[in-house]
Amino acid sequence: MYGWIWRMLPGNLVARGLTALVLAGLVAGVLWYVVFPWIEPRISLDLTTVGR
Asked: Which residue ranges traverse the bilayer (predicted)?
């Protein structure tokens, strides 16, 4: 899968690297600001089953 994405990116090695970094940053930003806040109330991260 990663090879296919790398081949689909335009430009030379430097341009592909920068594009890949920007895309990874966009994915991380969407996860951080959209997906994680949406999912957090739906799962209980505060409850533990280990210990007392």
From this structure: 20-39
User: What is the DSSP secondary-structure string of 9-52?
Assistant: S-SSHHHHHHHHHHHHHHHHHHIIIIIHHHHGGGS-SS---S--
Mean pLDDT score of the chain, rounded to an integer? 88
Other beta carbons less than 10 A from residue 40's beta carbon:
10
CA distances, 13 to each of 7, 18, 31, 47 (Å): 11, 9, 27, 47
Selection from 10, 36, 37 nearest residue 22 by Cα: 10
Q: What would the two tokens of residue 30 be?
A: 């969407």
